[in-house]
Amino acid sequence: MLLSLFLSKEKKLIKQWKAEHLQIVALAGNVIASFSKNDLDATKKYLKKLNSIAVDHLTGEDIKLFELQSNSKDNNPLVEKITEFKESFRSVKLPLMKFLTLYSSPAAILDTEFFDKFNEIVDVLLKRIEFEEKNLYFLIGL
């Protein structure tokens, strides 16, 4: 607790984002486990929670990254990494959000097509999280 008083605003934010990543990964695992057990009610519950956390996380991250990018010099390594991250994630972010919104709705049918797509999305998401934490967060926390 005392340590958090001395952490910079950015380091606190990175700590929060990493905690959200852990929640996202855990919920994705819960979706896979519950679907594998054919517990579709639990799967829906985990999907709704995952949708909520992912949307909040992505929105907060977008706002902060835009702010950092706007307040930095053009040739700053951070600006370059933020630009690289945003451009590479652009094609994934919107489909991810649409997918989670679609399948977390009460009327959505959870079938093998859903499960196959979900596993593909989880693979991409894990790579994005790894990129963020190894490349982007390091620069933000400096």
Overview of this protein structure:
The chain has 142 residues and is an all-alpha fold. The protein has a single domain, classed as Four Helix Bundle (Hemerythrin (Met), subunit A) (Up-down Bundle). It contains 5 helices and no strands. Helix 3 packs antiparallel against helix 4. The longest helix has 31 residues. The N terminus is likely disordered.
Question: What are the SSEs and their pairings?
Answer:
Layout: H1 2-6, H2 9-36, H3 40-70, H4 77-104, H5 112-140
Descriptive key words:
5 helices; Four Helix Bundle (Hemerythrin (Met), subunit A); 142 residues; 85% helix; disordered N terminus; elongated
What's the short story on this structure?
The protein is mainly alpha-helical and about 140 residues long. It has 5 helices and no strands.
